[in-house]
Amino acid sequence: MSPRTHRPEARDTDAPGTPGGAPLLVDAEAGLRPAPGGAAARRALLAHPAVLLAGIVLASLNMRAALAGVAPLVGEIAEDFGLSSTASSLVTSVPVLFLGIGALAAPWLGRRFGAERVLFAALLLLGTGVLARVLPSAYALYAGGVLVGTAIALLNVLMPGLIKRDFPDRAASMTSVYTGAMIAGATVAAAAAVPLEEALGGGWRGSLGFWSLLAAVAALAWLPQVVIARGRTAHGTRARAVPAAAGRPTGLRRSALAWQVTLFMGLQSLWTYVLVAWMPTIFTDHGMSRSTAGVIFAFNNLTQVAGAFAVPLLAGRTRDQRALVVLVTTLVAAGYAGLLVAPVQGAWLWSGLLGVGQGGAVGLALTLIVLRSGDAVTAARLSGMAQTVGYLLAAAGPLVAGALHQATGSWTLPLSLVLGVCATALAVGLPAGRDRHV
User: Fold this and answer.
1) DSSP 33
2) Hey, is 32 helix, strand or coil?
3) Helix, coil or strand: residue 3
4) pLDDT in tens, 238-297
5) Which residues, 6 or more positions from 37, have their beta carbon under 8 angstroms from its beta carbon?
6) Where does the record place the Major facilitator superfamily (MFS) profile domain (predicted)?
7) Nearest to 316 by CA among 26, 21, 34, 2
8) Could you count the other beta carbons within 10 Å of the beta carbon of residue 410?
9) What span, in angstroms and rounded, lies between the C-alpha atoms of 156 and 102?
10) Are 169 and 180 contacting, i.e. CB atoms less than 8 angstroms apart?
C-alpha cells in the first residue's frame, strides 16, 4: 500500500446515491466476463425498462423497512415475551449480524444464479422472515431476524451491481432512485409502526407483519425479470475471471488502508444500528409518547437523505476526504451528546443532526471503498470485506447498549460509549480519507 497520484477520472464520478458517472458503483459480479447467453438476456431485460424500474423501486422500499418498522415496537415485543433489555436488543442485533454473514454469500450467488433470481429469492426470504417474527414464539422472533438480515444483505450487495450493469449511462440517477426509495421505505415504516398497530387492532404483530405484504408485492414485480433472464442461470460458471482479480483478497487482509476503510464502515454502522434499535425507547423512557417517538425516529430516517446525497457528492470531487470524516463524525457525536444531556427537550434537533451525520457517514464509507481502490475488481473485493466485517462489528452495538442499559438502569453509559465509538471512527477515518489506494 503506497500513495499514488490521484486519477482525475475518480474525481469526476460519484458514489452511489449521488449525481455523476457510474464508475464508482461497486458491481458484485466484477471480475467476470458475461457468457453469450448472459449478454443476450441482459439485452432482453433492457428492452423492458419499465418492468426493471418497478422492480428496483419496490425492492428498494423493502431494504430498510423491516428494520426500521420494528424499532418503535421493541418495548411491546419485550413485554409480550418477557424479555430483558439484553434479550430484546437481539431483535435488532440478529438481523444486523446476518447483514454481514449474508454479504459473504451474495457475490457467489449472484455469479452462480444471476442477480435477478437471487434478488427474487431474497424478497421471498424477506417476506417469510417478517411473518416468522410475528409467530407466538421467541425462537421464531429471532429466527425471523436471521431470515430478514440475510435477505437484506443479498439486496444490499447485488442491487448496486445490477444498476451499474443494466444502466451504465444512467447509473447515478438510477442509484438516486433506489437509495431514495430505500430511505423512504425506512421513513414510512418508522412513522407508521404505532398507527398501524392501532389501525389493524392486532397489537405489534399486525404492525410488524404488514411489511410482508410489501415484500410480496416487490417479489411479484420482480418475477417478470426472472422469467426474462432465465437463460442466465449458469452465466457465472461459464464466465472467465478477469486476471487482475488474482490474489486480491489476501492482499486486502494485509492492507492497513483496507482495514481503516473497513473499520470506518463498521463503526458508522454501529452507531446507526444503536439508534435503529433504541432511539424510540430512549425517548419513551424519558416520558415521550410512543407515537411521538416513532414520528421523530421517522424524521431521523428522512433527514439521512440530505447527508447521503451531499457528502458523497463532495467526496467524489476532492482528493482528500478527511474534512468530511470530521464533519460527519462531529454531527453524529453532537446528536448523541444531545440525547445524553436533554433527550426530550431537543429531540427534533438531535434527530436531525444524527440523521444528516448518519446519511453522510454511510455515503462517505461507500465512497471511500471505491476511491481507495485501484480498480473495479479491488473495489468489489473491498466492498465485500467492509460490509462483512463492518456489519459483524455493528451487530454488537444494539446488544451491548441493551445490556448496559439493563445493568445500570440508565442510558448514560451506553450513550457515552457511543461517543467513544465516534472518536474511534474519527481516528480510523482520517487516515482512510487520505489520497491513497489499496
Assistant:
1) P
2) strand
3) strand
4) 444 444 444 444 578 889 999 999 999 999 999 998 998 899 999 999 999 988 998 999
5) 231, 232, 235, 238
6) 48-437
7) 21
8) 11
9) 10
10) no
Beta bridge partners of 436: 3
Q: What are phi and psi of 3, to 5 degrees?
A: -65, 145
pLDDT, one tens digit per residue, over 40-89 is: 666 666 666 777 888 888 998 998 888 888 888 888 898 899 988 888 88
> At a CB cut-off of 8 Å and minimum separation 6, what does 360 contact?
306, 307, 308, 310, 311, 324, 327, 328, 331
Neighbours of 2 (CB within 10 A): 6
Q: What is the crossing angle of helices 171-200 and 49-68, to 10°? A: 50
Tell me the DSSP string of 128-167: HHHHHTTSS-HHHHHHHHHHHHHHHHHHHHHHHHHHHHH-
Superfamily of domain 2-236+248-437: MFS general substrate transporter like domains (1.20.1250.20)
Q: How many residues belong to the chain?
A: 438
- Show the cell assigned to 106: 451474495
Among 355, 336, 396, 356, smallest CA distance to 92 is for 396
The alpha carbon dihedral of 372, 376, 377, 379 has a sign of: positive
- Model pTM? 0.77
The answer to whether 284 and 293 are in contact (CB under 8 A) is: yes
CB atoms within 10 A of CB 79: 11
Rounded to an integer, what distance in angstroms lies between the CA atom of residue 150 and that of residue 45?
A: 26
CA distance linking residue 269 with residue 358, whole number of Å = 9
Cβ contacts of residue 200 below 8 Å, gap of 6+?
206, 207, 210
